[in-house]
Amino acid sequence: ASSGSPKLWKTLFTEGQKPSFLWENLVSRCCQIWSHSHVVSCRLWILSEGSEEKLDLVKVVRFLINSSTFNAVNVESFVDIPMALDESAWGRSEDTVRSATKFALDCLLRFDYERKLRSRNELPDCIVLLLLIARLGRKQVQFVSGSIMDRLRNEEGDNRNWLLLSLLRLYACFPFSMNLGAVALRTNLKEAVEICANDWLSWRSPMDDSLQDMVEASLSINSSPRSVQSLVDTAKKHPLLLLRKLDRIIYLLERDALALGSAVTKDESSVVVGKSLDGSLSAVVQGKPLKVDVKHWGYNYTETIWMAVLDVVSAVPNEVLFGCALKMGLTDLLDAYLRLVFIQSQLRTSDRLSKLKGRLTEFFELFKTNNEKTWDTWLSSSNCDLSSLGAIRNVMMSCGFITHEQALENVKKAHKSESE
After folding, report:
1. What is the pTM of this model?
2. Which residues, 6 or more positions from 125, have their beta carbon under 8 angstroms from its beta carbon?
3. What is the pLDDT of residues 5-52, one digit of tens each?
4. Residues near 142 by Cβ (< 8 Å), separated by ≥ 6?
5. Is the distance from CB of 391 to CB of 382 less than 8 angstroms?
6. Using CA of residue 137, residue 139, residue 143, residue 149, what is the dihedral sign?
7. How far is CA 206 from CA 157, 176, 229, in A?
């Protein structure tokens, strides 16, 4: 019959049908040729009575996705996509949302989706279904996140990791709809980033473009206190998303400290321009004696920009900043600051460094206090741009951030760690 029947649907979706690929293709075909009323009736049966049957989770999840208003399983954006009210009715009832969410989470934990869970584009169907539900509104987002949180209380090992990645993906797509006031949610999101930091850096979020624009505007010569404050506020509210822009922030700092050419001018009130302690060098060009000033990276920098970055980064909660941020490029940022301070310390303008060094000293103290183990590891590592000086601790000691005694203590800790 064109309206279908529970007997037909049970046969189609029952678990254990072989060969599985043939039955999965059949389900997809049914979505294409069934009448609209047939599809709606089947979906309602699955969501209201399917939990009492032993249904194939893969086929059920695929059907729920294919019978939605999206034409493709893998979509790039779940924001601002029109959806007819009658088509989304199943996603606006608590009972059917609960049932669909349960099918998706059961499917997530039944099979190995690690590669797809970490992927930027190729999401597993179970995650796509959760995002389709969440796209219907703030209440749906919070219901789905709450369901994931409930399961996290009873899971460990790989299952816990997959749930955490699912929660993080939900946050990436709907950052403004998550209840970030809940400590447990923030803790779980932080834990999720710690287990997939490299993957997290490449995921999509509707905040990506706006954050990029905010970073560019705040870290420019013509930036205003208001634009910097806006970035500071974002660092407090959405630190995990902002920290994904650390690579861009580092690039802007590196670009700012490039040696100025004769044709390049900047606002002198905010730019520190260094001069060699040895003064100008003598040269002869075409038989004429000349005075030459040799400059390289770090001879000049815009003080307001470098201070603004510290203001923004310091606004990130300490548990995030000295936790998962260390896996997202924080130490690379600190390396850039150390390199600048070291070079400026060798120039005549070193007296202008006091303010920047003061802020960095405070930052380093927080680093050591909040994560002493990683602090010691970082001190023992090498700065790729100052490799001739050896470990970071040597640069820190040269710049006056740590004493000779503290550097020696770090050496002892490093040797002890290696012997263990």
Report:
1. 0.88
2. 58, 61, 62, 65, 73, 107
3. 899 999 999 988 888 889 889 988 888 888 888 988 999 999 999 888
4. 177, 178, 179
5. yes
6. positive
7. 30, 10, 21
